TrEMBL record:
Domain of life of the source: Bacteria
InterPro entries in alphabetical order: His_Pase_superF_clade-1, His_PPase_superfam, Phosphoglycerate_Mutase
Keyword Cell membrane listed: no
Protein name (database record): Histidine phosphatase family protein
């Protein structure tokens, strides 16, 4: 049984004002960078590798951390936030003034494809994209641990820091908890800037013998969500 750890970190506060950020590419604010640095400082150990969304509000911090700690970094478009289409980048005030009924329907049940904003990414497709990206990360970690065992600290669990977005993290939570069709994880669950959680991944050796990179899937793995951060699970 292979054991890996994925540490998910949401980006911090951003520049650009009170807007609906999906693929709108805005940088972190000064406070947002501080938020992420504080969250990272709470980790008990350094990750072995950094994976990052390619959007500025994630990559800005990921590049900084990778350089400071001499960690390998990989950028994946699959870790980007959901694309809100014609609503993307608009202020919340404008959206409520122009599209309040549609906005209310969307947040009440974003899994219903009929509620998807114009030219936006359907949430079901987004969830599949996110799970594919995380599957790719796990596969690469397994291949690296097998090919380069010297890359990992002795007796340590291979770990990756995944710097990404609130929507991505909610999709992973929903998949782990088996609530992918629950609207509440998007409309009623608060995930603050620089939120941090980690996931233990357990991969059966027999499963690995019967799959390749194309068929390897996050949904077929044994996983455990740990909140809010890396900690001693025996404590309270």
């Amino acid at each position: 049984m292979k054991h890996l750890q994925l540490v998910f970190l949401r980006h911090g506060h951003c520049q650009g004002g009170d807007i609906l950020r999906g693929k709108t590419n805005v940088p972190l604010s000064e406070n947002g960078l501080i938020q992420m640095q504080q969250a990272f400082a709470s980790l008990l150990t350094l990750p072995d590798v950094v994976y990052s969304s390619s959007l500025k509000r994630c990559l800005q911090f990921s590049d900084l951390i990778a350089k400071q700690h001499q960690l390998p970094i990989k950028v994946l478009d699959g870790l980007q936030e959901i694309d809100f289409g014609e609503w993307d980048g608009q202020t919340w005030q404008t959206l409520y003034q122009k599209h309040e009924p549609q906005l209310t329907e969307y947040w009440s049940n974003p899994w219903d494809i009929k509620h998807t904003p114009p030219k936006a990414e359907y949430l079901g497709d987004f969830s599949a994209r996110v799970q594919a990206a995380v599957s790719q990360i796990i596969w690469q970690m397994l291949q690296r641990s097998a090919a380069e065992p010297e890359s990992y600290k002795e007796d340590s669990i291979p770990s990756a820091l995944i710097v990404t977005h609130g929507g991505v993290m909610r999709c992973i939570m929903a998949a782990i908890l088996g609530v992918e069709q629950a609207a509440g994880i998007f409309s009623q669950f608060h995930l603050p800037y620089a939120a941090l959680f980690h996931v233990d991944v357990f991969v059966d050796g027999q499963y690995l013998e019967n799959v390749d990179q194309d068929t390897f899937a996050f949904k077929n793995l044994s996983v455990r969500l740990n909140w809010p951060a890396l900690s001693d699970s025996s404590q309270g």
